[in-house]
Amino acid sequence: MVSKAEFEGRTVVVTGAGGGLGTAIVALLAGRGARVVGCDQSEEALASPHLASRHVFNLLDRVSVEAAVAAVLDKDGVPDILINNAGWTRAETLGALTADRIGQELDLNLTGVMTFADPLVKAMAARGSGSVVFISSVNAIAHFGNPAYAAAKAGINAYAKAIAVELGRSGVRANVVCPGSIRTAAWDHRLAKNPDILGKLQRLYPLGRIVNASEVAEAVAFLASDRASGVTGVVMPVDAGLTAGCLPFIDDIVGA
Predict the structure, then answer these.
(1) 153, 161, 193, 205: the active-site residue
(2) Are 199 and 170 in contact (CB under 8 A)?
(3) Which of 120, 160, 197, 225 makes an SS bond possible with 174, Cβ 3.0 to 4.6 Å?
(4) Which of the pair, 195 or 220, is modelled with greater confidence?
């Protein structure tokens, strides 16, 4: 059984803390004793009572990101754990891509994330300890649409492995969680177009359903914790089996 004091005395920085998955991560870690520092792009998104400290910035604004890093270090110190959760996409197919959309999605999901994480990770290494978890996506493992977002998330996977390899001797671990579809507000625009879309998703997933935010948060907590002290450089799908294989191929072709 996991201790309710597992993260007692630890400071955890969570980006995208006000989103659907971020909220679940914040609640879980705070519930296990962490001092959680929430980061998001508005004060309204950071209303959670679980947050001990709050920082507002925009991952698309380098000056804003660099100021936030300085503010985190000044107010909250070098974090024990960093959860890089913030991300966003709307360009869902190749046909939807434009130069502006490519730039925006790469800047938000890769460049902005690295710009924020890099000085914090190096500060962890200088101290001699730290755990970093990146929220990537199954889109970084196989193609499920959102090509610019997928490319950015694949970059995040590579960046995490770089941290794991180069800073492991400095006591820093870095791992990645790749969620499949999660029923959060990020799906609202699709549901508005097609209310039956969640039902259609079920036949793609070997567990017969998509994952919920609390399941992904549990994986994040494990990788962040001392329970995973020997785990680094790992890319972990939490996707109800989506990337294990193509279930419709079994149903429609092999089993037909």
Answers:
(1) 153
(2) no
(3) 160
(4) 220
